[in-house]
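Why this split exists: single-chain examples teach little about how molecules sit against one another. For that reason, every record in the complexes split bundles all components of an assembly together and asks for one structure covering all of them. Below is a record exactly as it appears in the raw files.
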Amino acid sequence: MTVFADILILFGGLIALLSAIGLLRFSTPYARFHAAGKASPIALMVVALGASLKLGAAGAALLAIAATAMILTLPVGVHLLFRAVHRTTESSHLVVDELAPAEAAAEPPTV
Amino acid sequence: MATAAIVLFVIAGLGGTYRLLAGPSLADRIIALDVLLISFMCALAVNAADTGNTNNLIMLVVLAIIGFTATVAAARFLQYEHTQPGQATSPKDISS
């Protein structure tokens, strides 16, 4: 069981490293946000799984709360960042842009 | 093992720090802060698993909530950064 926990923790470290590499190497803001915002909560979830295998019930409860909160909230925040970037910058490099006609047809935002 | 994992998280945090300092836009800096925060949270979890001390794990919950609030507030600020006071705030005006 301890070896399995070690493997999970190292695997989470590799996922965090991959997300940082994607944040550094990609060329457009959308690709960078995608790499950083989707891979990072998965890294935290894998690490929390490995750590809770080592810690037992008392640590596993807190780790489960933290990992669930992060994996529910971080994609939402990154999605808001996507929308803010789409509204404030030119996005002519996109192949498919479904947000621009949807926002042009919608009511002015109230929030 | 714990040392190797923490070295991986430090390398990921260094990548986030480079993007934080050199990011071409404000949104890149915000997402780099998120990557830094997650690297720190992972290192905290690995430290707790290594020492068996669960006292610091409540910090993970607090950091998750604070990180979400900071990202949402910064995204809202960024969205209306280019809008002048009194100007209409339709999406067409914001995007121009």
